[in-house]
Amino acid sequence: MKSYRKELWFNTPHRRDFINITPQVNQCLAESGIREGLVLVNAMHITASVFINDDEAGLHRDFETWLEKLAPEKPHSQYHHNTFEDNADAHMKRQVMGREVVVAVTDGQLDFGPWEQIFYGEFDGKRRKRVLVKIIGE
């Protein structure tokens, strides 16, 4: 069995962003040479997420609205965590959107359903963060 590992780095200009990282994951898969196996993609920071969904701008705005209702950023004083930081809402948003995804690799391709894409969700941006891509298989 082969194993491949790569870190993808992001520095978003906004506090919150959704980035389609499917092209980068596909590039990793091509570099790995693995034709059958599994791809793990996970956020290496506790205020970021990796998830699978549709690449549709209206849906992403809906995610933003929904997450802000669940865990509003302000007032910062509503959170016990925000003693020295102001990102408690980002931790909560990550819990809802998830840490990682696993995708099957079949015949050298990500084995997606219709419309599925991999996204990096940033909830406390404006600084450099990473995503791990780990691929195992033959």
Strand order of the largest sheet: 1-8-3-5-6
Task: Please count the beta strands (DSSP E, at least 2 residues each).
Answer: 8
- Assign a percent range to the helix content: 25-40%
Tell me the β content: 35-45%
- Largest sheet data: 5 strands, antiparallel
Q: Gyration radius, to the nearest Å?
A: 16 Å
Distance between the termini: 5 Å
Low-confidence stretches: none
Q: Helical element count?
A: 3
Please identify the structural class as seen in this structure. Answer: alpha+beta
Q: What is the H/E string?
A: EEHEEHHEEEE
Average pLDDT number: 97
Question: Which shape, going by the Cα principal axes?
Answer: elongated
Question: Would you summarize the structure shown here?
Answer:
The protein is of the alpha+beta class. The protein contains 3 helices and 8 strands.
